[in-house]
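Q: I'm writing up a methods section and want to include an example of the input and output format. Could you take the sequence below and give the corresponding predicted structure tokens, formatted cleanly so I can copy it straight into the document?
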Amino acid sequence: MILEGKWKKEEMIEPSVTKDINCCRIGFLIKLITLPLNVVPVIGTIIYAFINAPFDAWDVMDMYFDAISMDNKAQKNELAGDNPHFWKGIYSNKPYNGFGFAACLLETIPIFGPTIFSLGNACGAALWACEMEKRGGPFTLRESSKRHPLV
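A: Here is the clean output for your methods example:
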């Protein structure tokens, strides 16, 4: 996906396993802690998906963030939105929560979830990244370029 030359292949950074582990460590710990919620038939799964929604959205959008050289702090700002407190902000960012909730809920479906819907979620993330690029990139980067036009 290269729109109007915004992505230059030679400038793209290689994905780092260490960065991904550090980036998703919080999400992994929360998934591990909330895993017992899946024992409760319907409500538990919905609560599990809601709690893990922003972290699933962050996980599937991470490759896009890497492609545009977005550092970890900028990614957290993108997830938290206008809220200066990360933990309060991640649950108030409706686009990421909506996408992450649907992604997490679909992936909890036995057999089909991890096999079919994980691919669908990756495709959805790619389409969402295309839409972001059409609008000028992630909101955090657009706002920072307005405040600091020389950067």
